[in-house]
Specification:
Layout (H helix, E strand, L loop, with lengths): L2 H9 L6 H7 L11 E4 L4 H4 L3 H9 L8 E7 L2 E6 L1 H15 L13 E5 L14 H16 L3 E5 L7 H13 L2 H25 L2 H14 L3 H24 L18 H9 L3 E4 L2 E4 L9 E4 L7 H16 L3 E7 L3 H13 L8 E6 L2 E3 L14 H19 L6 H18 L7 E3 L1 H4 L7 H17 L13 H22 L4 H20 L7 H25 L8
Helix pairs in contact: 1-2, 5-18, 6-18, 7-8, 7-9, 8-10, 9-10, 12-13, 14-15, 17-19, 17-20, 18-19, 18-20, 19-20
C-alpha cells in the first residue's frame, strides 16, 4: 500500500496537489513518534492557520480509520502509527511478487536523460582518478532506468587536441607500431611522459606537435591512421575495466565527433551579438554574471573545451530531446560548467536549465596525488587486481574450503572498489585504502555482501513455506520491516539528488538492521509460523539488498 498517497488522498486540501502533499510526508527520526509524519508548517501559508491548529484539524479526518492504530497531533506535526501487522504482510508480499523489480517505478516513462560520464582520454592510462566519474555515472544510469527513464550513457572521449600531435611526434622518435601493439597503453603512456621530459629541453617539439595535430584536423592519412591506432588500443584496454565494473555506454561520441558541428555554434554566437574580441581571441563576456569571459576561439581560430561542449549539448538536445543532460565531472570544473551553461542560456536555449553538472570529489591513494604528465599514476586496473588478490587472501583465512574462491574474490574485490567510491557523499574527496575497503565489519561492501550470503545460508538450511500469519512483532523485526519499506523512496531520492551514496548508505542500514535481528531472534525456532515468517523476512532482505547492489553495479555472492 502507498501509505503516503493514502494519507494525501484522505486529507484533500484545497490548492495543494495530492502528489505535493504526499512528498511533504516524511518518516520520523524515532519510532516512538510514529511511522509517518506530516509537518504542517508546510501548509500554513495555504491554509492560513498555525501548524498546531492545522494538525489538530486534520487529525479528525482519520477517526475510525483501520489503516492506522493511532493518529496524533504533536507540536504542529500530524503523526501516524500504522497497523504494523497489516503493513508487514502487504510489504513482504509485494517484495516477493515483484522480486528484482521491487523498488522500480514508472515516473520517468517518456523522458530521456543523457548522462556524460567516465570520458576517458585516448592514449592515456585509465587510473584511479577516473574511478568516481565512472562508477557514479554508471550507478545513475542504472538508477534512472530503474525509475523508468530512457537513459543515454555517453562516454565523451577526450580524442581531440594537441596531445595527439605530441603522441605522434613521440611515436616517431622513440617507438614503433610493433612496440605500441605489444606494450599498448603502457607504451603510449611511456612515450607521452618522455615527450614532456624532452620538450622541457627542446621546446621545438611542441611546435612539431602542433603541426601534427593540424595534419590530423586536415585529414592527413598517415597521421589519422596513427590516431585511430591509439584510439583502438585505448578502447580495447579500457573495455576490460568497464566489463569488470559492469559499466556500459550507448555512445562513444567524443570531442572529435563535434569537429564539424562547432562552426554553426560560432556563427550563432556572432549573429546574436554574444561574441566579442579579446586580445585576438573570441569570448562571451560573462562579467555581468560574476564570471570571467568564456573563451570560444583562440587567437589562431582554434576551438576550446567550451566550444565543443556547447556543440555537444546542442547535438544531444536535437538528437535525444533530453529531459535532463547530466555531466559527471570533478568539482574542479565547476566554473567551466557554469560558464558554458550560461552561454547556452544566453543563446536563447530554454533547455539550458536542464543541463546539470554532477560534481564529485577526487580519489587518491594513501601515497598521494597523481599526474599523467609526470608518470606517477596508479592504474585502476592494478588497483582492482590488488583488491581482488587481497580479497582472495581474506577468504582463504576465513573460509579456506569455500567453493569458487576465485569468482567470489573477484566479485568481492571489484565490488569493494565500486562501493568505496559510492559510500560517501559524492562531493567528498576519497583516500582509497585497500585494508579499509575489504573489512568485513563496518561500512564496507564485504559487510553487505556477507549479509546477503547470511540470508542465503539461512534459506538453504531451512525449508521456506508459502503463507504465514504475521506475529506480534519484536522491535528488531519491525526495524527490518521499516528499512525494507524505505527502499522505493530511497531510489527516488537518489535519482532526485543525483546521489548514488543514498542507495549505498541504505544497503548498510538494512544490513545492520538484519544482522541485529539475526542475533536477537532465532530464525529456526520451534514455532512453525514464526519460523516461516522470519524466513520470508530473510528472503525479502536478500531480494532488496541484491536490488540495491545491482543499482550500484555490484554483483552478490551466494556464500562467503
Amino acid at each position: 500500500m502507498d501509505y503516503k498517497g493514502y494519507i494525501a488522498e484522505k486529507l484533500e486540501i484545497n490548492d495543494v496537489e495530492k502528489s505535493t502533499l504526499s512528498d511533504f510526508i516524511e518518516v520520523p527520526p524515532t519510532a516512538d513518534m510514529g511511522d509517518f509524519a506530516l509537518p504542517c508548517f508546510k501548509l500554513a501559508k495555504v491554509m492560513r492557520k498555525s501548524p498546531v491548529m492545522i494538525a489538530e484539524e486534520l487529525k479528525n479526518k482519520f477517526n475510525g480509520d483501520a489503516t492506522f492504530t493511532e493518529v496524533s497531533a504533536v507540536n504542529g506535526y500530524l503523526n501516524f502509527k500504522i497497523n504494523r501487522e497489516n503493513f508487514t504482510a502487504e510489504l513482504l508480499s509485494e517484495i516477493e511478487s515483484q522480486g528484482d523489480l521491487y523498488g522500480s517505478a514508472t515516473i520517468g516513462n517518456g523522458k530521456t536523460i543523457c548522462i556524460d560520464y567516465s570520458s576517458i582520454n585516448i592514449a592515456k592510462p585509465f587510473h584511479i582518478g577516473h574511478l568516481s566519474t565512472t562508477v557514479i555515472g554508471s550507478a545513475l544510469c542504472k538508477i534512472f532506468r530503474f525509475l523508468g527513464y530512457k537513459v543515454v550513457g555517453i562516454n565523451h572521449l577526450g580524442d581531440y587536441g594537441t596531445q595527439f600531435g605530441k603522441l605522434i611526434v613521440a611515436y616517431k622518435l622513440w617507438s614503433s607500431e610493433e612496440k605500441v601493439k605489444e606494450g599498448r597503453l603502457k607504451e603510449l603512456s611511456r612515450i607521452y611522459v618522455k615527450f614532456h621530459d624532452e620538450a622541457k629541453q627542446n621546446p621545438s617539439l611542441d611546435d612539431e606537435a602542433r603541426r601534427y595535430f593540424k595534419l590530423i584536423e586536415d585529414g592527413d592519412e598517415e597521421s589519422n591512421k596513427l590516431f585511430e591506432l591509439f584510439k583502438t588500443i585505448t578502447l580495447e584496454e579500457v573495455d576490460k575495466i568497464y566489463k569488470l565494473l559492469k559499466v556500459d555506454f550507448d555512445s562513444y561520441a567524443g570531442e572529435s565527433f563535434y569537429n564539424d558541428k562547432m562552426q554553426p555554434i560560432v556563427d550563432e554566437l556572432k549573429q546574436k551579438g554574444l561574441l566579442k574580441s579579446s586580445d585576438g581571441a573570441s569570448v562571451v563576456d560573462l562579467e555581468e554574471y560574476g564570471m570571467p569571459p568564456c573563451l570560444i576561439l583562440k587567437s589562431d581560430g582554434s576551438s576550446l573545451y567550451a566550444t565543443r561542449d556547447i556543440a555537444a549539448a546542442v547535438y544531444r538536445k536535437n538528437t535525444y530531446d533530453f529531459y535532463k543532460c547530466l555531466y559527471v565531472v570533478a568539482y574542479q570544473q565547476n566554473l567551466h560548467f557554469k560558464q558554458f551553461f550560461k552561454v547556452v542560456e544566453l543563446m536563447g536555449k530554454e533547455w539550458a536549465k536542464d543541463l546539470v553538472h554532477v560534481a564529485y570529489g577526487m580519489v587518491s591513494l594513501e601515497s598521494g596525488a597523481m599526474s599523467t604528465r609526470g608518470g606517477n599514476v596508479v592504474l585502476l586496473e592494478d588497483v582492482i587486481a590488488k583488491t581482488i588478490e587481497k580479497a582472495y587472501k581474506v577468504i582463504e583465512d576465513k573460509n579456506p574450503d569455500l567453493k569458487d574462491k576465485d569468482k567470489i574474490a573477484r566479485t568481492v574485490g571489484t565490488g569493494a572498489v565500486i562501493f568505496s567510491a559510492l559510500c560517501n557523499n559524492k562531493i567528498k574527496d576519497i583516500v582509497f585504502s585497500y585494508d579499509r575497503v575489504l573489512s568485513f565489519e563496518g561500512e564496507t561492501c564485504p559487510y553487505v555482501l556477507y549479509t546477503v550470503a547470511r540470508c542465503n545460508s539461512v534459506l538453504n538450511k531451512n525449508q521456506i513455506q508459502d503463507g504465514f500469519t504475521v506475529p506480534t512483532l519484536t522491535a528488531e523485526e519491525y526495524d527490518v520491516i521499516k528499512e525494507l519499506g524505505k527502499f522505493k523512496d530511497v531510489v527516488k531520492v537518489a535519482g532526485d539528488k543525483y546521489e548514488p551514496s543514498i542507495v549505498t548508505r541504505y544497503a548498510l542500514d538494512l544490513s545492520a538492521s538484519f544482522n541485529k535481528f539475526y542475533f536477537a531472534c532465532k530464525i529456526a525456532c520451534e514455532d512453525q509460523n514464526l519460523k516461516n515468517f522470519r524466513l520470508h523476512l530473510a528472503k525479502s532482505v536478500k531480494t532488496v539488498l541484491t536490488n540495491a547492489l545491482n543499482l550500484l553495479g555490484i554483483d552478490t555472492v551466494e556464500e562467503m
